[in-house]
UniProtKB/TrEMBL annotation:
Keyword Hydrolase set for record: yes
Protein name: Carboxypeptidase B2 (plasma)
Top-level division of the source organism's lineage: Eukaryota
Cofactor: Zn(2+)
Domain Peptidase M14: 123-418
The organism's taxonomic lineage, starting at the top: Eukaryota, Metazoa, Chordata, Craniata, Vertebrata
Gene Ontology cellular-component terms listed: extracellular space
Keywords: Carboxypeptidase, Disulfide bond, Hydrolase, Metal-binding, Metalloprotease, Protease, Signal, Zinc
């Protein structure tokens, strides 16, 4: 009898627990593949009318039949959204049932927790931590690292780049890497930190990075969009744009990767400040894009390679995104991207797609890579790092090292190629 009683108590307890768990809905990521035009219309409606964040594609206009849509649905709109989907017989898959937990994991400051085996570079860092890291890195490596103030953000935060320069060779060329144009793509700033740390740690140990730093200076801008990045830490993890205020609406932010002067605001961008792909009021209207453009204009004779780091979807893109026309050195760019993708596949077993932006991802004007290319930097790439949608923008910290190592391999492969194609060898080239 007693055992029976205990049995019932436990059964009910279990039911109660499960109910409690189910009613407490969390922020979720849904994957939905529209099968008909009606489904497409419903999804466009949901992603514009309800409090959601479209992860993939970047804007509702790109939603099309038979192509996966990734949608972030906050807990408070979960019921309404699922109801709508169900009523129109649109099936969905839950990619992430509890995004809150992941977000909490990524913002936890476990630097003081000795049980976490991860290093500084295997965690995400707040903007303040990154500013502190920039200062400390320059201070600790006075002969190799200089801080350059390239401008300031809309909210007047400094835009710092690090210049890595390992010797004073005359006529030295350079490459540029920027990270964090898009606020929510957190693995991007993490990569810039990773790259600087790797350069400082493996010079004279790894042959490839040694050859690169012997022949090029490297400018690294870890957070191009500090206002947006700050905002993803304090208010909205899914924020993409900068934080500039529009004169005509209450909507905030310009997509900095639509604000450069490359077929500015044609198809693939929007004049509507309320969209995620708002191009701003004129090319370089934003202080962040203007600062980068000014710096590159004044260094265009030395900078040979432009790299900009985004996430997610695992792609290596090159110009053009703003037109279907082929770049004049398309074959070169394709060959470099292909070689980089092949190495990632061989060493890390991950597949990266590659190609001209407009044909590989979507038609998109006003991007920094196209603009830099037209300025005369003939080697210009956008990297989209891990993953392919499993965690999307919420890539767990435990994946940072994998994502950064494979991207680093691609950077090294491409930079070595640029040196090989453009510079007379001063020291023996490493064998590929
Ligand atoms: C977009 C453009 Cl405009 C470009 N020139 N190159 C790459 C992209 C893709 C990124 C974007 O801004 O949408 C991916 Se997050
Ligand atoms: Zn991006
Ligand atoms: Zn992206």
């Amino acid at each position: 009898m007693a055992t029976l009683l205990i049995f019932f108590v436990f059964m009910n307890l279990d039911v109660l627990l499960r109910m409690g768990h189910c009613t407490e809905t969390r922020d979720q990521i849904l994957s939905i593949t529209p099968k008909t035009q009606e489904h497409v219309d419903i999804l466009r409606n949901i992603s514009t009318q309800y409090e959601t964040a479209l992860w993939q594609p970047v804007s509702p206009q790109y939603i099309k039949e038979e192509t996966q849509v990734h949608l972030f649905v906050p807990a408070n709109s979960s019921e309404t959204v699922k109801d709508l989907l169900q009523r129109h017989a649109v099936t969905h898959e839950v990619l992430l049932a509890n995004a809150n937990e992941l977000i909490e994991m990524q913002t936890r400051n476990d630097s003081t927790d000795p049980r976490s085996g991860s290093t500084f570079y295997e965690r995400y860092h707040s903007l303040e931590d990154i500013y502190y890291w920039i200062n400390r890195t320059a201070h600790d490596n006075p002969n190799r690292v200089k801080i350059i103030l390239v401008g300031s953000s809309y909210e007047k935060r400094p835009l710092y780049a690090l210049k890595l320069s390992f010797n004073n060779r005359t006529n030295k060329k350079a490459m540029w890497i920027d990270c964090g144009i898009h606020a929510r793509e957190w693995v991007s700033p993490a990569f810039c930190l990773w790259f600087v740390h790797y350069s400082l740690s493996f010079y004279n140990i790894n042959q490839d990075i040694t050859h690169i730093l012997d022949n090029m200076d490297v400018y690294v801008l870890p957070v191009l969009n500090p206002d947006g990045y700050k905002y993803t830490w304090t208010s909205n993890r899914m924020w993409r744009k900068n934080r500039s205020i529009s004169k005509t609406t209450s909507c905030i932010g310009v997509d900095l990767n639509r604000n450069f002067d490359a077929n500015w605001c044609t198809e693939g961008a929007s004049h509507d400040p309320c969209t995620e792909i708002y191009c701003g009021t004129f090319p370089e209207s934003e202080p962040e894009s203007q600062a980068v453009a000014n710096f590159l204009r004044s260094h265009k004779d030395t900078v040979q390679l432009y790299l900009t780091i985004h996430s997610y979807s695992q792609m290596l893109l090159f110009p053009y995104s703003c037109t279907l026309e082929e770049a004049e050195n398309h074959r070169d760019l394709l060959e470099m991207a292909q070689e980089a993708a092949q190495k990632i596949r061989r060493y890390y077993r991950n597949i990266y797609r590659y190609g001209a932006g407009a044909k590989t991802i979507y038609f998109a004007p006003g991007g920094s890579d196209d603009w830099a290319y037209n300025l005369g930097i003939k080697y210009s790439f956008t990297f989209e790092l891990q993953d392919r949608g499993r965690y999307g923008f919420l890539l767990p910290p435990s994946h940072i090292s994998g994502a950064c190592n494979e991207a680093l391999l691609a950077v090294k492969t491409i930079a070595l190629k640029v040196i090989q194609k453009t510079q007379a060898p001063t020291s023996p080239s490493p064998t590929f």
